[in-house]
């Protein structure tokens, strides 16, 4: 084979990763570079069908630069969050051999080989449905397969954390806790699974997609401004969240929907209170988000106990947890009545989901 011929190979891996929705919120960093949070957080990982990222990573000696295409458009990889992840992964890469294709890549070769990355989110990007979580979890997981990393999910989760904090929780299915850690080097800031995706299979997720528009203030910038200007944020991180973490773990363990709902709604509301306490204030919710929350509050009140929990991240989309399938069906009826999806209104569609785990799809 001539020299040019021997360069004509491409190795590819595709992976799919779910997003996750926090029920105890991460909002605020103590270290911007390593992405170390000011409090622990807990999330629920979604199913792959409705809210996930699919990423294909490839390597070839003919590639001249690392490049990323996000939802079909080229996207700059120059940001620190991408550079840190790529650097960490390259430093752990292993040997790869494909006898059929006559390819042999040694650990050292990865430093000089370039990557092409094509990624799609099957749900709105940068609209408060945690695309950065599934996006970075998928990127790290796919690259780890391609480059034959021997590291376990714990290490991959720590690498994904350096892309986007919430991404460290998407490496696990079911119910996940991210420990803030105490160390300055981030060595004890990682995610663990609290319960797997089968633990609470009655729980159903309903998402009214209020808006697919990209938010004006990214989560990264929003939380930086909150840390700099909000007085409520430190009280929340030190006094409120530690107690709620203990209660939420207990609620998940016991499948106690009453406590789960009370804590989830209170967390969402306090998170948005911190956003309002930021200068200038961050308005992530809109009128429709407020109306959906009021509708759920009224329903829960009229029943005398919570049927549905709501949470809203850094965007206008509300995520609803129904206690069981019967409640989910009633909830959808109510929502369709009050908020019919229509091209002229801001409500576009509904997404129904379960809890789940990420996959290597070949
Ligand atoms: P969201 O609420 O959707 O998580 P963020 O502001 O936290 O919004 O993050 C959006 C950013 O995450 C995007 O601008 C992009 O940098 C990154 N991102 C989203 N999806 C992907 C993906 N599939 N692959 C790589 N990066 C992604
Ligand atoms: C409101 O993980 O998107 O969704 O770490 O800067 O990438 P960066 O931020 P990101 O923030 C998530 C904030 C949140 C709450 C949560 O997911 O816990
Ligand atoms: Co995000």
Automatic annotation (TrEMBL):
Protein origin, superkingdom: Eukaryota
Protein name: Diphosphomevalonate decarboxylase MVD2, peroxisomal
């Amino acid at each position: 084979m001539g020299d040019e011929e021997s360069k004509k190979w491409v190795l590819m891996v595709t992976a799919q990763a779910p997003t996750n929705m926090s029920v105890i919120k991460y909002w605020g960093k103590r270290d911007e570079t390593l992405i170390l949070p000011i409090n622990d957080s807990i999330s629920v990982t979604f199913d792959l069908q409705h809210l996930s990222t699919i990423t294909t990573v490839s390597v070839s000696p003919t590639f001249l630069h690392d490049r990323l295409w996000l939802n079909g458009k080229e996207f700059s990889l120059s940001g620190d969050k991408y550079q840190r992840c790529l650097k960490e992964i390259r430093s752990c890469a292993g040997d790869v051999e494909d006898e059929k294709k006559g390819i042999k890549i040694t650990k050292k070769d990865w430093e000089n080989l370039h990557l092409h990355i094509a990624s799609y989110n099957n749900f709105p990007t940068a609209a408060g449905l945690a695309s950065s979580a599934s996006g970075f979890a998928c990127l790290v997981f796919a690259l780890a397969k391609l480059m034959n990393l021997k590291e376990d999910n714990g290490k991959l989760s720590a690498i994904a954390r350096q892309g986007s904090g919430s991404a460290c929780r998407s490496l696990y299915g079911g119910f996940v806790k991210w420990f803030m850690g105490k160390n300055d080097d981030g060595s004890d800031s990682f995610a663990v699974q609290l319960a797997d995706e089968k633990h609470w299979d009655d729980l159903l997720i309903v998402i009214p997609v209020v808006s697919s528009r990209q938010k004006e203030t990214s989560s990264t910038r929003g939380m930086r401004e909150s840390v700099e200007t909000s007085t409520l944020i430190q009280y929340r991180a030190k006094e409120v969240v530690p107690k709620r973490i203990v209660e939420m773990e207990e609620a998940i363990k016991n499948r106690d929907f009453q406590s789960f709902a009370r804590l989830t709604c209170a967390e969402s509301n306090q998170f948005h209170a911190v956003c309002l306490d930021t200068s200038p204030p961050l308005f992530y919710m809109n009128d429709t988000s407020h109306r959906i929350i009021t509708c759920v509050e009224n329903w829960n009140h009229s029943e005398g106990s919570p049927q549905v929990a709501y949470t809203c991240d850094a965007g206008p989309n509300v995520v609803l947890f129904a206690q069981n399938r019967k409640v989910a069906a009633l909830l959808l009826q109510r929502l369709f009545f009050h908020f019919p999806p229509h091209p002229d209104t801001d409500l576009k569609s509904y997404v129904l989901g379960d809890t789940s785990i990420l996959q290597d799809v070949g």
